[in-house]
Amino acid sequence: MTGHLSIGVDATTWWNKRGFGRFTRGQLGAMLDDPRGHRFVLFVDQEPVDEMIRPNVDIVRVETSATVTDSAVADGSRSVGDLLSFRREASSRPLDVFWFPAVYSWYPVSGRIPTVVTFHDAIAEHFTRLVLPTLRGRLFWNLKVWLAKRSARHIATVSEAAREEIVRYLHIPRRKISVILEAADEQFHPITDEQELRAARSNLGLPLDRRLLLYVGGLAPHKNLAGLIEGFARAIGNGGLDDLDLVLAGDPKGAAFTPMLRNCAP
């Protein structure tokens, strides 16, 4: 393909609070900021946000019974009707290529449209019962992943380690996978102002005079936070770390594969 393209994008993951939602907002936002003459058609299941409203963007609002943010989790599922609605809308457009920022929200599109599907990892295959504890969840996930990888013209992922994991557990040829690196949002930068640092600790109820070991991320079982807590307790028990506190930062009620902290008793 050469010249200016009409690029379809599944933008339903924009509203997700997990890593692939942040990835979608970062990557898609950068693409829209620098379109290079391409036109984007965004398929959404919610009211579009202001960042999506651009001269080079068409937005297709698909009416569904539930949003992807609510249904694409371990204890939920998307209705066949919703999948068909997305397929119908996407397949009816004159698109040159279609991009899924995450396999979680994949749906079938016309075979005439080459698709690129982003697999962020193979954790659900590597640690299946921690991520998908129910048989129903595993069956639906396995079917979706099999269809997505079979129909995709190409696979994208976010690191060399993730690519190796995908090759091993999903049996996708390495030549079919490209690494597209993630980048930190502009809001993440070092803070050196001591007054600002002390105010942040005070606002969070953290001690001002102790060192912190900080974990930031999901609080789901497959993150092995139980192992982190147990290891930290052992290290403290061995002495020499009396001025160190462990801080877990995350949303225990956030959108996730499995209920947060189920296996993470301190």
Q: How many H/I helices?
A: 9
Major sheet details: 7 strands, parallel
- The CATH superfamily of the largest domain turns out to be Glycogen Phosphorylase B
Mean pLDDT: 88
Strand order of the largest sheet: 3-2-1-4-5-6-7
Number of separate structural domains: 2
Might you state the CATH topology name of the largest domain? Rossmann fold
Describe the structure.
The protein is α/β, with parallel strands linked by helices. It has 2 domains: 6-179, Glycogen Phosphorylase B (Rossmann fold); 194-249, no CATH class. Helices cover 34% and strands 16% of the residues. It contains 9 helices and 9 strands. The chain has helices spanning 19-33, 68-71, 80-91, 123-126, 128-131, 135-151, 160-170, 194-204, 225-237, and strands at residues 6-10, 39-44, 57-61, 97-100, 115-118, 154-157, 177-179, 211-216, 244-249. The strands form 2 sheets. Strands 3-2-1-4-5-6-7 form a 7-stranded parallel beta sheet. A two-stranded parallel ribbon has the order 8-9. Strand 1 (6-10), helix 1 (19-33) and strand 2 (39-44) form a beta-alpha-beta unit. The chain is globular, with a radius of gyration of 21 Å. The protein starts with 5 loop residues before the first strand and ends in a 17-residue tail after the last strand. Mean pLDDT is 88; it is low at 259-266. This is Glycosyltransferase. Keywords: Transferase. Residues 36-181 form the Glycosyltransferase subfamily 4-like N-terminal domain.
Question: What are the main properties of this structure?
Answer:
266 residues, alpha/beta, Rossmann fold, 2 domains, seven-stranded parallel β-sheet, two-stranded parallel sheet, 9 strands, disordered C terminus, Glyco_trans_4-like_N
